[in-house]
Here is the input.
Amino acid sequence: MTTSLPIDHELHPAGAQYVGAKINRVEDPRFLRGEGRFVDDMSLPGMLHAAFLRSPVAHANITSIDTSRAAALPGVTAVFTGQDLEAEGIQPIVSRAFLPGMGDNLREPLPTKKVRYVGEAVAVVVADSRYIAEDACELIDVEYERLPAVIDPEGALDPGAALLHEDLPANLIGRKSESHGDPERVFAEADHVFSHRFVHGRVAGVPIECRGVIAEYDRGREGFLIYSSTQIPHLTRSVAAECFGLAESDLQVIAPDVGGGFGIKAHPYIEEVVIPFAARRIGRPVKWIEDRYEHLSSAVHAKELVMDLELAVAADGTFLGMRGRYNANAGAYGCFPQTGMVDAMCAATLLPSLYKVDHVSYEILAVYTNKCMTGTYRGVGWGAGHTAREVLIDDAARALGRDPLELRLQNCIPSEPYRSVVGMNYDGGSYQESMEQARDALDYDALRERQAKLREEGRYIGVGFSPFVEPAGFGSKAAAAVGQKHQVTYDWGSVTLEGDGTVTVRMGFHSHGQGHETTFAQVAADQLGVRMEDVRIKYGDTEGVPYSTGTFASRSGVIGSGLIMRAGGDVRDKLLRLAAHLMEVSPADIELSGGKAFVRGAPDTARTIKEVAQYAYFGPGSRQLEGDMALTSTRSYDPPESYSNGTIAVVVEVDPETGKVTIERTVAIEDCGVMLNPTIVEGQVAGAVAQGIGGALYEEFVYDDDGNFLSGTLLDYLLASSMEVGPIEVHHIETPSPVTDGGIKGMGEAGTLAAPAAVLNAVADALSPFGVTFTSTPITASLIRDAVAAKREGEQ
Amino acid sequence: MKPAPFEYHAPETSVEAASLLREAGGDGKILAGGQSLLPLMNLRLARPSVLVDLRRVQGLDGTLANGGIRIGSMVRHGQVQRSHEIQSRVPMLTEAMRHVGHPAIRNRGTLGGSIAHADPAAEAPLVAVALGAELVALGPDGTRTIQADDFFQGPFMTALADDELLTEILFPEAPASAGWGFREVARAHGDFALVAVAAVVSVEDGRLRDARIAVAGAADRPMRIAAAEQALEGAAWDAGTRSDVEQIVRDALSPAGDSHASAEYRKSVAGVLAARALDDATKATGSTA
Amino acid sequence: MRTVSLTVNGNPVEEEVEPRLLLSDFLRHELGLTGTHVGCEQGVCGACTVLVDGETVRSCLTLACQADGTAIQTVEGLAPNGGLNVLQRAFQENHGLQCGFCTPGFLMAATALLERNDDPSEEEIRDELSGNICRCTGYTGIVRSVQAAALQLREGTVTASEGTAG
Here is the structure.
């Protein structure tokens, strides 16, 4: 499929040889030698170590904090509480309201009056070692006056519910309703209405590297150097500067190598204020490395939603309307910048997905509860809403006696660009084709035959399909499309041809597994005709690279490539003029490739780009050229909405007596438009699918009714290993986006977004002889076995 | 997540180790492989003031076959798993080791450490109970032998006194007519058992004899299901017996539910796994029951 | 404080340590070998896996003083010439890593596996590596990397420790 691109930048200028190729990653050797530099690998002279005392109770007034015993422990330098920060005027982190009736949420870096969830930091100890700091935490005496805990999102707005934030009238974060078409009518007239309440479990990205902060204060310049394991160094700087009342450039935030993010590190955190505060007070660098308990209890959670969905279907299987109510159990605080509304808004706005439905309404709300605050995790609420919808569609197919894939194909939008009834502008894709390709890859008919045969032997296999659209390349317009008009994104980057002929790309997009040092080098090398090994991608240091909202929401690939094409195109024009001047020909006759500039069709005329660069920097003749000849350009890019699509299909075997699920096969069809590097696309898909499988079967943060946190170790919050995930096959379709630079669509989240529905549908399909359906995640072995048993008992 | 301070000793004899425990007055802990103790210490859920490391103690890391087999308490899970001698005499133990954590855990974790730790969902204690192992404890006053059935007294609680350490585990010789089965369901590979069942049974003249059935993960300790063992005595292994045993095992248990599995799940799956383990055991005898 | 003497990547080391110091912290912060990573200190994730006397061990579940008298190998010791050995190269060629944080643990676990068995099945590889959690790759690239390295070792074109200019 080809689509003309209305953009003057070219992803593949003449001589291009890298974009689209499977190229090994250039960042790998340092990690393979153990020479990556993560926050905990850094050490500054005179550095001290911090540990936080965290609340053991879900909701309580802090009556008193006595730090004297802790401060007296040998090796302890200082102990700070919220009072110390308040006394110096450190401002709270503000999560801003953006809807009528919504209030700002202010979070003190350390609380002065109340604790609102188990794991909330209450005090910080700074000591010679982490060991001593932890010893001292045990010597801090805090008196708590217990308050009732609000845990259930459906009860959070009850008049009698305890209030989390006294400055707000209720535990409501925000509420919004929308209606498109005439859903009341179609639901009244439909032949069939299917509905369920689906409760999505509380999950999170849980990278293998926890978070960490090192801060140093420069007393002379009155500024901070902050190392943080974050996806968003610039936003972190913005927030910390505001808390300290400093100019942004008084702070230098460096995100070095970061051991995974998945959205959890896409928020500023209180530790990024408290640790710099401590460093300033003490006058020495301070390091805090989040441990796994702190990470699980206090880094953002995500996707806990109670969803009431309805699907109106005509007698012939046509989808007529969808209605949804989404209640997000968003935890104790608002997350910057999205607020606790993020999951519910994302879930709701993607309700119609790739189905042609003309009548849709939804209500969304998010409530404060005494749990860890929620934020972003790969696929965000899109994934939770997707799971609830796709499970309901499978239930409908079974009830109607229809094949689940056929029913979806019948209702699928066409491959051309399409505006959904809720106002999302899909830029075209392989919506039906990807389903057909998944079906063919599985040899679907043969699979159904095998299923029937195995059932006779008392074995239960099942298949589940999950076709998806993934909002990607997240810029301001995409943010608006998911109801987050307040979230203006801002990204710029520069391309520079250095005097030695190498190219430096500076961008704010951090890379923590995405392989930017490779893919962006491919794009830049093609733009300037240099060899990839002569390109360096710089990121992560607010002092050294231009501003970026950060790496999340599958945005870096689209925006970063666009920036490089734009800025690189500018530099390319100058390079062509310089080469032409040097070689005494017309710029139009010059081709750049493989590190050389030559007259088209006459490779023996070649001058190396190094020679041209040296001519520009040091050659006297180059000054005769008119105009601005700086071999650098800085550009911004805020792309239109674009959407990747594809289908995930999973085949499972289920033991109905033990509830054990074995994943036999996973097929992922991915269409992310023009690919920069298929190897990296495949890696992103496989990794995302594994997380999706984990969320479907194993992962959940559990609190009891009193708000006690029961998932403080990785034995409780279970991550899938190589044995659970099984082989994942990735197939590509390439439908260029007609609206983005280069036709690229962002990707990386779809597996996490779509795989859970495929798993749930496959398990329900396997167990269809028992009539088992699911209305929650994760579907643990216990839940599956108990569901089968309940059906069996019901029949007796 | 760092351990609280403690006093550390690495004695060279078990007698010395026992007297160090006595001096610690109930606040001492044996460090064997450390794969259960150190996570608890990192979390500060365990904070012994004295740690007695057995790594230098002689004579705890061997195996001696003599009809049955004596296994030193410091023999690592990985060594148990790879030992041909153990596999030929106590194949159930070899099989159970596959389910213990992951290779790196098995390379450090010890059989004695796991048994003394007495996690109600752990595999080694389950096998010890199912096979009627004898556990040799050494204290300041000498050694004594404790039957596995008496050894486990509750979750993480054993018959060992504060100043005793486990030195040896004796697995008796299995009769030639006996077969065994070991079944486990965990949330994920290598995770603690949600439920595990170990069964041994002999078949004589088509009749089941001397069955031993033990369940882990569904009680406060690895638990023999005496009622099921009695029901099997003299019975044939047919569909009726199978379903009876499943029900008896299920009814014999009253586990608590938690965030990983419901009480009903643990009861019911214990029954299912018991039947499956007995399928394996009767098949392994080579005789038709 | 106790004295421990051991070898790390072939180099003799003698240090005074506090008894409670974890081996992971000893390697990282006393010896500066920061290639061994810490992901949970609960013995689950496997990021801190090192070889002690040739066997994989969780360094977060081992006290430094327990390592007295042992020979330890860390990721820094895999390709001493600053290049990549066959396994490391296979990880690069088969996209066996993304963020790189869990990677040293996987390399050490796979090294131990290939030492024992140069022809592991996919199931054996998955089983052997199941104590190491990767949150990025979905394991597909990792399994393929180990298979590729095993193939090269079997073909005898390279030895496990052979490095190439990186």
Q: What stands out?
A: The two ends of chain B are 54 Å apart (CA to CA). The interface with chain C takes residues 1-8, 10, 31, 34-35, 38-39, 42-43, 51, 53, 55, 78, 101-105, 107-108, 189-190 of chain B (CB under 8 Å).
